[in-house]
Amino acid sequence: MIQELRAILTQNVDPDQAEKMAAYMQKLFPFAGIPKPKLKELIRPFLQQTAKLPLDWQLVFDLWETPEREAQYIALEYLQKHRRQIVPEDLEKLQQLITQKSWWETVDTLDAFVGELVLQDTSLKQVLLRWAEDENIWLRRVAIDFQQEYKEKTDALLLGQIIEKNLGSNEFFINKAIGWSLRDYSKEDPRWVAAFVEQHKARMAPLSVKEATKLIS
User: Fold this and answer.
1) N or C: which end of the chain has fewer CB within 10 A?
2) What is the pLDDT of residue 154?
């Protein structure tokens, strides 16, 4: 299976497009040059063929190890199709993906899977609290953002604790995540968010404050 998927990438290489896509990602990863709409069309038979099969984590890791960035996008599409098969015991596997070939476009997809696992097993909140202080900024970003789809299920106390552990950071992706998570929760409880920002404004990056208060009148 992995050879077939890798063949799709090599058979559809577009050097000019690959250069543009790599440049957009600050040349952190090599690309085959396949735009996402075309990639989704190319892998549709694969996703249909595997939809009812058990989740194959080895295939996911093989795709993650494939040089072309599109391979990681295939892995994420595959995980999306099998998201109901991802269980709390798989959190370590997701952690491995988050911390390898890390950049916002993969990490911000993986954090939704993490969020679903925490809803299944609330004891995992303790893991996310540890992630909030990890040296790896992408684990910290996931810890800050994993509740973004929770709405009324958001654990505001946990959200506050995690954000407080990351105040004072100079890291753009952390400060952006803080702002986004607070802005998202402001849709449910704007007064809580306003009070949190007021209490911690002196230690919050201007970017975080700007994002957090966008929806608060």
Assistant:
1) C
2) 97
Check residue 192 and give its pLDDT.
98
Q: How far apart, in whole angstroms, are the C-alpha atoms of residue 13 and residue 7? A: 10
- CA–CA separation, 217 and 110 (whole Å): 32
Q: How many CA atoms lie within 13 A of 173 on its CB side?
A: 14
Which pLDDT belongs to residue 185?
Answer: 97
Below-70 pLDDT ranges, the chain: 217
